[in-house]
Amino acid sequence: MNIGLDIDGVLADFIGAFISYHNLVYGTDFSYHQFTTLRFGPVIGTSHEEANARVTEFNHSPFFRLIPTIPGSQEAVKELSSRARVMVITSRPSALEHETRKWLGRHFPECKEIYFAKNHITSDNQGLKPKEQLCLDNQISLMIEDDLEHAELCHKAGIKVYLLDQPWNQETIQGAIRAKDWEELSKLLNNQ
Ligand SMILES: [Mg+2]
Question: Global pTM?
Answer without folding.
Answer: 0.95
